[in-house]
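Same chain as my last thread, 238 residues:
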Amino acid sequence: MLGLATIFAAILAPTTASAAQGQILFLMRANPPGGSADPAVQAHLEELGYRVTVTDGFSNAPDPCGFDLVLMSSTVRSNQFTADRPAISRWRDMGVPLVTWENDLLDDLRMTGLRRDSDFGEMETGHYIWLVRASHPMAAGLPAGLGTWTEARTPAGWGKPGLGADIIMTWPGEPDKATLFGYEAGATMDYDFQAPARRVFIGMENNSFSRMTETGHKLFDAAIAWARAGKKQCGTKK
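reply #2:
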């Protein structure tokens, strides 16, 4: 009997782990030009115990209220998002935590201002980081100061967030260019907009995840865990 109990425990363990970690809705673009690391991101999250549902873009996506966290990859096209006005409010105002690494969506999500290359943009190489808030959970216990999070010559997105943001890391020498930041639920974002739930930006591009250092993977995991821990109730901002 002991042998059967052990077998059943082994079979049930992965399902239990997935339920404990939470369910993630992952919005991405299938087969983008130049490829992407999205499949590797999905596999990594599933290894951590999350249950991941993948959807190609916004139009046919399931109700985000059925999930603990929504991810928007950089492979998602911003013009697809802005083409449907109801879709903007649906995803921007949802009471579900959100993590994105598409800098072109930051203004639409009210995580930054509207001006490209002033309020948000992309650097040709984002190899280095300056960790500025080591005490925050998204800093993954790493020390403050200079570090590297991707291989050399990997592009990185950045944003200039609103006053309510927790800025975790920036581009060295340019503190206005934040490459990892988040908003707590209720924090003031841009345009005096209050975050309906936790919001996080991490400045990856399509293939960054496959080029991350150990530091980069720690920061990514910590950002996911912090955002997901903010799920309290669903619904949209009124």
